[in-house]
């Protein structure tokens, strides 16, 4: 083994030489040879799923020094300041882009041909559906047979499940609003399970793959009808939307589900893009004309006073225009910038608030003229404040009236009837308005009324009279009569969280001088939310809503697929780095971090940053590090990645720091035995943080050959 004295030009060491034997092994021993900075490499794509083999690295216990032995690596030169050297993504020619907007409550797809990028084609009108609801999206509802096979998706799944005999329905697997599970699960893995309405569990990856495969079949059939000569393989670039606040494991999960669904092969990862939902909305809003926007900040005068009803009338006007456009499934977008964008100057800032079914996603962009590219000014923020919060408030109200134990039993014993009840509430929720005076009637399924009578020995009307809820009455037609005050109370907790979050964001120094606030997403169709946002922020900035507010993200995702370079600069949501060894400095480093090797004192567990939280990272900008195998013939290098929500982290054992992923470098066997002079085999890894996913590529410096590299956030 080369001693430190013999390699004094390279400050590095093989950890396995001095660690206990139980920490030694081929998959854990490697040597750092050089620490680079932001550097420029010819990169085409660094997919997280390029290598489907999982590298499961054991986590040592107890000793802080041995917290992660495979990351105790030494930088051979001090880290330099990042240099903004950029190599833009090489775009592969695709004939068509198909985008799937995978939402919490509803989903859909759209596509555009590369030869005619100004035309965005929406999906066919879905079968089934509810009166008064646009059919350009379908509910995110999946139905599997009792043996776990795919049966149907969307309206078809919902209606079929609703029509099943109650006893038979208990054996079928029905999933709805399951996207939220991916956001809320802190330890997401490939084996994470989802619970169907009947309580049975299925692997989440299978559930998502079934849904994506459904959209693949639908899109391919329509493309085949429109363009019979279009080859299926390699002709389509697929785009899947996810919330911007999703962490790397959730994004990788969607990619793995797409591989399992057969959208693209794992060896051709650049054929699939992950689009961030508020980014997609921002990209589409760039194209809009003034007559395609509703300015909620404009309030016409009424008898010298500002009219509070303008928001409702504006929304009704937008609904009418949207209704007229439903006969056409092709939307034409501007070849250049829309009229609103042409008014904006370089440096103008705006917020996109994507208010969906499950989450609210906020992003802050700055326009860059004349090319119209976008720059993110503050890391994506938000939380689980979507329209589902109103549904949960309604369920809580039912528990208050009928008893929490009864509602739980009813959901378990009559799952199809519970779905029927939620559908009835959804229809009335859409008609809620801030100035509505009359009550709203919500139909209770007969099975609910009958089940309550048998279970409690009294009727529903008696339960309402005995409850402490005064704003909900019983109708002789078998309905709950909710006063407008009661409906408003269901909305208020969720809306208040949204208003608070937008307000907190606007107070950030980076977000000063906002010119526009774009309200998009399915929940943005609610006049309750529109009125609240308009009241809170119209004095600060112009509050704008696209007419087709529920389809804004879907259309923007298509445009993103046509030009993935449109967002030029993003912000890192977290601080990422690795654990390294540095020279031990008395008085600076704690004694418990001291590691003595061959007469040299080293400080272990130093957190060396790749990128800091909220740091601007340009598209194509890479972090470059070089590594050497610890011994000749080593075939695999495992590098553990750590993350933290703050920038002041010093050690990988600090509070808030956690291991979040691994980089795997698979090494080919050298054709010729290395001479002593060439015994240090250098592998140069390049990581990209400026895209929607963290990506990695690697090269063998000696042979200039590509090394198979993968980054995994799901095996922790």
Automatic annotation (TrEMBL):
Residues 43-86 are annotated as: Disordered. SUPFAM superfamilies: Actin-like ATPase domain. Gene3D superfamilies: 3.30.420.40, Actin, Chain A, domain 4. It comes from the Eukaryota. Residues 57-86 have a biased composition (Polar residues). This is Heat shock protein family A (Hsp70) member 12B. It comes from Podarcis muralis (Wall lizard).
